[in-house]
Structures are given as C-alpha cells and as structure tokens.
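Sequence in, structure out. First:
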Amino acid sequence: MSSPPLRVFLSPEEDCTLFQLRKSRDIPQRTKDRAEMVRLNACGWRVQDIARYFYCAESTVRTTLHRWQQSGLEGLWDAPRPGRTRRWQEEDLEYIQTGLEQSSFYNHPQTLQKLAQERNLNLSIPHIRRLLKKKKRSTSASR
C-alpha cells in the first residue's frame, strides 16, 4: 500500500513570502530553489514533476517539503556546517588593510610580529593573502 501524496498548503502570506524570497538577490540559490519547490507543491505539482523540473532526486524534494512542514521558513536554509571556527575577526582584516595602506607594515615578518603582539593573532602570510583577496572580491562585487 502506497503512502498518500506529499502536499503542502500555503496561506497567502506564506506564498507571498516565498515568492519574495525567490526573487531576492542576497539569498543562496539552494534556498531559493527550496522556496520554489514548496510553492510548486502548493500549486499542485507532484514530487516527481518538481524533481524533474529541478534536475534533482525525489528524495531531495521530499526532504525539503518535510523540512517546510516541520520548521517553516527556517527549514529552507542550510544547517550550519561543521568545521573549525575561524581565528580572525573582520576587525583584524581591517587592521591589516589599514596597516598596509599606511605603510606601517614593511615586510612579512614585521606583519606577523605586529599581528601576534597587538591582535594576539597567529596567521600565515598565505592565509592573510587569501583573506585579503577574498575581502577585495566581496567588496568589489557589492559595488
């Protein structure tokens, strides 16, 4: 005996919120896709059709719909990923950038020494370089 089809019902406010979420620019694409999966299911689409539309597994669609039913809007976002917590803060990057712009850092050993003494931060030069490149990309992309 098969289980009944998985179906979500949305209030007009929930539908409007999911539509706005789908159109937002600063929301991850996977979250937008999950919002659209919920909306399509509420419109009467079957799980198989939604999976085919998004080129994903049916289990992905079912998981999304179950997460919506259990957690609502919060169920659409990714859970925090495990891993080491970062050792630096945004203020540390600002400090490094300011030091580089004002030429108070002259070479790599001086930079590392100042960070260790003044900020209690021990990072490698390649790590600092990656962080500054990433910061530069994110600020230029937001303009």
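Second:
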Amino acid sequence: MYRSLYFIGFATGYVYLIKSFQDQKKVEALERQNLVTQIEKQALENDLVQSQNNYLRSQINPHFLFNTLNFIYNDARKKAPMAADAIMNLAEMMRYALKRPEASEMVPLSEEIEQIEHLINLHKLRTANTINLELEVTGDMFGLRFPPLILLTLVENIFKHGNVSHSTQQALIKITYEKDSLNISTINMINDNKGKQTESHHVGIDNISKRLSNFYGNDYIFRYYKDPLNRYITEIAVTVVNPLARLNR
C-alpha cells in the first residue's frame, strides 16, 4: 500500500510539474507574441508618421521656396522692415521643420530654443510688441539633446490658450540645465475667453506626455495645473547627461 501511495504521489507530482512547465511555456509564448505585436504596431505607426512627413515635404521644393522668401525679404526690408523681419522668422521656422529628423531621434535643445525665439518674434510683430512674455534660459545648452517639438508645443499652447498681454502677470518660459538636471517650466495667465479650446489644449498636453514617456520611460516628471491666481503652469524635469559637457569648460 505504501509503495502504491508512493508511486501515485510521484506520478501526480510528475504530471503537475509537466503541466506547470507547459503552462509556463504557453504564458511565455503569449508574452512573446504580445511583444511582437506591440513592436509591429509601433513600427507601423512610425512608418505612417514618416510617410506623412515625406508626403508633406515632397509637396514643396525647398530651394524654390527659400529663394522666393529671400527675394520677398530683400524687397520688403527697406519698404516694410517689420514685414521683412516676420518673413525671415517664418523662413527660419520652415527651414527647421523641413530638415526635422525622425520622430524617434532627439535634436539639439539649442535649436528648439532658437525656434521658440522665432515664434515669439513673430507674435511680437503680429501684435505690435504688446505681448508680455519672457524667455529665460540658464545653463550651458551646447551639446544637450532633447525630444523635438515638446518645447514648441508648450509655447504654442501659451499663445493659443493663454493671456500673454496681461499688464501685471507676465508669461514666462524658463529653461534651466544644471548638474545633469534639465527643468522646463511655463507660466501664463489663463484666457477665459477661449474656453472652447480646452479640448485641443489637452490634446497637446497628452502628446507631450506620450513623447516624454517614449523617450524617458518613467524617468521624468511632467506636471500641469492651474494655481489660485488663475495661471496655467507646466513643469518638466528630466535627467540629461550631456556627453559634450567637458568640452564646454
């Protein structure tokens, strides 16, 4: 009897181990399949974005475009200096957009800041310099790389949804890099007359969250909120090691 019980127990254990092993292999196979599916989905999305970018770029002959803008700029420089400045800022932003890298690549942060300056200048020209906004950059940005279009999206949101003409509450874009820590913040009064644009505002914010997650995983901080003074505030904090830091000294 004991021998029978022993063999029965042994057989039961063996069957259990075999079944556990088979179940584990099934789980691993499902996990591999899910991973392959996610990779294929991401590849398709990247291909779609790239195809859209290539299509848009193919619609314009950059050489012809910039030659024409340069001609208009030179013609307007003496007759309408403000219009000439607007043309130049717009041309630089278009030039940057046309040479933009793949969606999965980072770009020099200094180039993104330069595009912000062009955008601010365009709005100043458009509003006869009535906007109350300051761009504050602290730290050495040389060699520093960052995901493209995040800064531009934040600044575009300020102009679309914020009150940048408030007499006492200045809008602020602050970029600071110190000891491998990059901090980006924006502050602006909320324009209550643009309540209908709230949905599009959140689309831009959601896109920023997704892009930060794609590049940094969980190693970043992104906050956005309204404070008691009716100001909209965004804050980004990431650790960025600059490989060219030693060359800057």
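Remark: The chain has a mean pLDDT of 78.
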